[in-house]
Amino acid sequence: MKPSSVTLAQMLDARERRAFAQTALLRQADANDCLVSFSLNIAGDVKRTPKTRLLFDRGLRTFDALGFAQRARTVTDAVTGTEALILVRANAKTVKTVLERLEEAAPWARLFDFDVLNAAGEKLSRKEPRRCLVCGGPAADCARSRAHGLDAVRAATDALLDECCADTLALTAHAALERELRTTPKPGLVDENNNGAHADMDVPLFLKSVASLVPYFRTAVRLGMHSAGMDALKEAGLDAERAMFEATDGVNTHKGMVYSMGLLLYGMGESLCSGADAIDCAAHLAAVDANDRLSRAKRCRDTNGGRVYADTGATGAVGEAAGGFTHARFCADRLAFYRDTGAVNPGALALCDTMAILEDTNVLHRGGREGLAFLQGEARRIGALDPEEREAALCALDAACIRRNLSPGGSADMLALAYLLDAWRALKKDLFWEVCA
Of 158-167, 272-281, 282-291, 425-434, where does mean pLDDT reach its minimum? Predict the structure, then answer.
């Protein structure tokens, strides 16, 4: 989308439309209702961008989580900003008190603007004055005295938007990794049935690892928003690996995700600012040093992936990223297909389809070409069964993988990335939108 500047006339028209819509909703209200008007306080003449929409959506989800009974709701997305009107069955004063606390619950929540009108259409006043984004003093006093220029206010606004976007996408990545972990059954892998072919790993250990990566995920998004480049992401990734190993007492639970998920989050951050495709951004960044990484791995053979590449030519996570995350996108497509067709366990089914086609370097490391051929053949066989028969077959394959010491960790990584991409696709429907007057 192309962010567009708004004129005073457009803002006045939007205010008039909002008042008309409020009046229409209030006609449906009774004495026990109130009307919540939700928008954002965005400095400057650009009111609607992917970042503002992401903040708005987070605010709306936070409001929904409060549990107020909603009788009606409208959402308007326009060049003048995104707004929601919500008719609520609750006491207006109670709602206003709760929403004032919500507006201070996080740094970026100071950009939320929740107005509450009682059933008679009277707007309730705040008990505490808003704080200035720049100095923290009373916002009304700073506005009257013009204590800060527009550039300073806009910079403070942009910083809060960036912080919200980084946090939101980091938590989305955290949720993706946890969903992958809890997807069950996963042949040879840690899941809620067993520890697979891993004597040194279990669900609690993975949860510690996932939690340790959230700060890095935030950093990766920020680096993408500022186009910081591969060296900066690599440095942040090394810090993340150290945090992961500290959390797991030296067990390698998510080193591959530090690389792959970090790239995708960087791409998403860059996409929020440029409008470019997130996967294209991530793949372009991965290609910057893909050949160097593979050449070094072939020479040094100091990692399992390096030895597999030297012996078989399988490029693993590096080739997947530089090639545009082909298998992760395939897995995301299968995940969406199974979910949309009502399958009971779409994650496990998508994983099986991915195992059937992925040259999984973790399987090659543990079982060589013979082990990979066995796993892919079994996955293809299970994929040909009726969906309701596949879960039992996957449990049987799990037992066989444990006996053979096979763990399709590369396929598990594709599933985690698929969960992230699936969430990103849902976000994109609202975030990227060609603004019109």
Answer: 425-434
| H-assigned helices in 183-229 | 203-225
Closest CA to 47 of 80, 2, 84, 11: 80
Alpha helix stretches (DSSP H) within 126-202? 139-145, 150-182
Distance CA 191, CA 314 (A): 26
* 148, 177, 194 - which closes a domain: 148
Q: d(Cα 282, Cα 270) in Å, to the nearest integer? A: 9
Q: Which amino acid is at 258?
A: V
- Across the strands, what pairs with 73? 86
Instruction: Give the helix/strand (H/E) hosting 69.
Output: strand 69-78
**121: domain range?**
8-148
pLDDT band at 264 (very low <50, low <70, confident <90, very high): very high
* Shared-domain flag, residues 262 and 380: yes
pTM of the model: 0.93
Nearest one of 140, 111, 124, 114 to 52, comparing CA atoms: 111
DSSP string, 308-322: HHHHH---HHHHHHH
Among 113, 148, 183, identify where a domain stops: 148
- Token look-up 């040909």 returns 384
CA distance 118 to 96: 10
Per-residue pLDDT, 21:
94
Q: 195 — phi, psi (to 5°)?
A: -95, 10
Q: Convert the pLDDT of each residue in 61-80 to its tens digit.
A: 999 999 999 999 999 999 99
Element (H, E) at 77: strand 69-78
Whether 297 has a pLDDT exceeding 90, the answer reads no
> Do 38 and 84 touch, CB atoms closer than 8 A?
yes
CA distance 348 to 117: 48
Closest to 50 in 3D by CA, of 301, 257, 278? 278
Here the tokens at position 277 are 């495709």
Retrieve residue 326's tokens: 């082909």
